[in-house]
Amino acid sequence: MDYQECAKKVIECVLLNQRTGNIVYRHVSDIAKGEIGVLLYLNDENNGANAYEISQKFDVNTSRVAAVLNSLSKKGFIQRVADPLDKRKIQVYITDKGRRYGEEHRQEIILKMSKVLSQLGEYDAKEYVRILQKISNIVENCDEEVFNHND
Q1: Both ends of the chain: CA-CA distance in Å?
Q2: Could you read off the pLDDT of 86-123 as tens digits, one per residue?
Q3: How remote is the C-alpha of 26 from its chain's centroid?
Q4: Which of 115, 147, 139, 117 is closest to 129 using CA atoms?
Q5: Which domains, from first to last, does the chain contain?
């Protein structure tokens, strides 16, 4: 199999179908990099998290995390608490208001994605998920140099 030719077809599909990609993945992207993602992460982390942990989880810089946390704090979705042992360290916790807001958005995104998957049919939807999971595992376990190498 010519994997470079296959890669070209994937890229072509992505570029030609940007509208489709935007419709399907825009909401998932909102989770991955934005306020909703941080809320859902904090919802799952019962012990809270600090800005560094959040930046590592979402692979964004700490200044971006600070901006997101400031916005969430102004909305009453998170609470910042100083570490009693080291006042320089701040733990971030989700509030009940933030938990409700995050869950509402999670359910909305799941509903939209499930509508798309239902159009694929059971077999193709399962295969699509299986392949996405496999790609995610490959990328996660792959040496970063492979993806950062400029030929």
Answers
A1: 21
A2: 888 899 999 999 999 999 988 888 888 888 889 999 99
A3: 11
A4: 117
A5: 27-148 (1.10.10.10)
Task: Answer whether 27's CB lies under 8 Å from 109's CB.
Answer: yes
Q: Are 120 and 128 in contact (CB under 8 A)?
A: yes
Tell me how far apart the alpha carbons of residues 99 and 92 are, in angstroms, rounded to a whole number: 13
Three-state SS for the chain is: CCHHHHHHHHHHHHHHCHHHHHHHHHHHHHHHHCHHHHHHHHHHCCCCECHHHHHHHHCCCHHHHHHHHHHHHHCCCEEEEECCCCCCCEEEEECHHHHHHHHHHHHHHHHHHHHHHHHHCHHHHHHHHHHHHHHHHHHHHCCHHHHHCCC
Q: What is the mean pLDDT of the chain?
A: 82
Q: What local confidence, expressed as pLDDT, does residue 144 receive?
A: 63
Cβ atoms of residues 39 and 99 within 8 Å: yes
- Worst-scoring range by mean pLDDT, 20-24, 48-52, 62-66? 20-24
For residue 15, the tally of other CB atoms under 10 A from its CB is: 9
